[in-house]
Each structure stands twice: as structure tokens, then as C-alpha cells.
Design brief:
GO terms for molecular function: rRNA binding; structural constituent of ribosome. The chain is mainly alpha-helical. Helices cover 75% and strands 0% of the residues. The chain has a single domain, classed as Ribosomal protein L20, C-terminal domain (c-terminal domain of poly(a) binding protein, Orthogonal Bundle), CATH 1.10.1900.20.
Length: 114
Amino acid sequence: MPRSVNHVASRARRKKVLKLAKGYFGRRKNVWTVAKNAVERGLAYAYKGRKQKKRNFRALWIQRINAGARLHGLSYSALIGKLNSAGIELNRKVLADLAMNHPDAFKAIVDQVK
């Protein structure tokens, strides 16, 4: 009996990977074996990047809060400690936005906890 090969599924699988490789440079965009490796690596980096994005944004918010707090004579850790003891529950994202875009509101919060 002749060997049965599902060309429809394998062609579709290859087309899917080559579509993901669109925009890559050189043979990475049109040679199956090279494109497959490049796409796998790219998807791994994308997965890792989604986790790192959360860390990077938190670090950015902390830097902005620290810069805003030091303008008013406090460090970041002192400000966060006083906010917690005062029972003010604002997350770092909101505090960073206030420090950056609404300095008068941020100053009011700092004056409240001093």
C-alpha cells in the first residue's frame, strides 16, 4: 500500500510559520528551515518580553516617584513608608502619573503624609 502523507496539513503549517517570518532579513523570511528557527526564537523572546515589560514599567514608575519625592525632600522609600502608615492606598502607576503630569496633586499627597 502506498504511503499516505497529509500534504494539506504540512503545507498549512509551513505557510503559517512563513507568514510569521514576514519582514525578516535574508533567508530567514523564505527558507523553511531557517525561518522555522527564527520564528521559534522570536516567539520565545516575545514570551519573555511580556514578562519583562511588567518589571520595566514598575522600575520606571519607581524612578518617577523617586524623582518627584526628592523635589519635596523625601526619598522614594520614605514616601512609600509614610503613605502606607497614613493608609493612603495609591499604586505606583497612579503615583508616577501624578508625579509626572500633575505635580501640584503629587505635592498635596506628599504634604499630607509629611
